[in-house]
């Protein structure tokens, strides 16, 4: 295929890579919590914007999926943890040729910024990968480190709860019901309590497995 008929999007991407290799992208920000320098999203926008315009290359995002969950940090603060799957269309303004880059962005925030940060992270790493920008020492969204508290174990089952469970297991009318009662109590039981649960489970399972007499 001759150069005149080649999709212009790829030559535009290569030209941006060439200019970036000459101009570079310094690590002007510092993560104070973990002590490393990094390139923030503003640095990426500032250096890429004139290069994209110069080489007539558009980068257009499309969110494929978004998932938000709540977590709690060591201080008890609620954090919103967002994961977005984003596709970026790299489009040549010259001939409309296109190449799509897909990345995942993740971020946490205690307010309403987790989705914004996740989108910024997705864009930043799409740019890093497409334009071969080194990423050593990088960690973003955005220079903030969150320590997530470990989930506490469920409370131990009390003797009264165990007694009620043993009675319910004895009255269970199906193996499915018996397994549900047994499994729920087992997770919270001590070793001695588990021995009692296992004994009752085995007895009731045998009874349920015996054929009914006419």
3D architecture notes:
By secondary structure, the chain is of the alpha+beta class. The chain has 2 domains: 3-130, Enolase-like, domain 1, CATH 3.30.390; 159-209, no CATH class. 43% of the residues lie in helices and 23% in strands. It is built from 6 helices and 5 strands. The protein has helices at residues 8-23, 41-54, 114-130, 159-171, 175-186, 191-209; strands at residues 29-31, 36-38, 57-72, 78-92, 98-109. The strands form 2 sheets. A 3-stranded antiparallel sheet has the order 3-4-5. A hairpin with a 4-residue loop joins strand 1 (29-31) and strand 2. Helix 1 crosses helix 2, helix 4 packs parallel to helix 6 and helix 5 (175-186) packs antiparallel against helix 6. It is elongated and about 80 Å long. The model is unreliable at 31-37 (pLDDT under 50).
Write the layout of secondary structure elements.
Blueprint: H1 8-23, E1 29-31, E2 36-38, H2 41-54, E3 57-72, E4 78-92, E5 98-109, H3 114-130, H4 159-171, H5 175-186, H6 191-209
Antiparallel strand pairs: 1-2, 3-4, 4-5
Helix pairs in contact: 1-2, 4-5, 4-6, 5-6
Structure described in brief:
The chain is 43% helix and 23% strand. With 214 residues, the protein is α+β, with helices and mostly antiparallel strands. The strands form two sheets. A three-stranded antiparallel β-sheet has the order 3-4-5.
């Amino acid at each position: 295929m001759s150069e005149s008929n080649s999709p212009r999007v790829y030559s535009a991407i290569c030209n941006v890579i060439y200019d970036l290799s000459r101009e570079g992208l310094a690590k002007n920000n510092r993560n104070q919590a973990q002590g490393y320098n990094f390139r923030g999203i503003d640095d990426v926008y500032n250096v890429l914007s004139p290069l994209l315009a110069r080489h007539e290359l558009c980068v257009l995002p499309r969110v494929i999926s978004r998932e938000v969950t709540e977590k709690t940090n060591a201080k008890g603060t609620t954090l919103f943890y967002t994961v977005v799957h984003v596709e970026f269309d790299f489009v040549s303004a010259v001939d409309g040729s296109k190449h799509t880059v897909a990345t995942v962005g993740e971020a946490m925030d205690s307010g309403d910024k987790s989705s914004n940060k996740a989108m910024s992270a997705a864009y930043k790493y799409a740019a890093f990968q497409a334009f071969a920008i080194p990423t050593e020492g990088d960690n973003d969204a955005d220079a903030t480190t969150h320590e997530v508290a470990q989930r506490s174990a469920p409370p131990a089952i009390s003797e009264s709860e165990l007694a009620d469970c043993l009675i319910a297991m004895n009255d269970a009318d199906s193996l499915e019901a018996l397994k549900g009662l047994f499994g729920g109590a087992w997770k919270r039981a001590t070793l001695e309590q588990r021995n009692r649960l296992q004994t009752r489970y085995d007895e009731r399972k045998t009874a349920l497995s015996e054929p009914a007499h006419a």
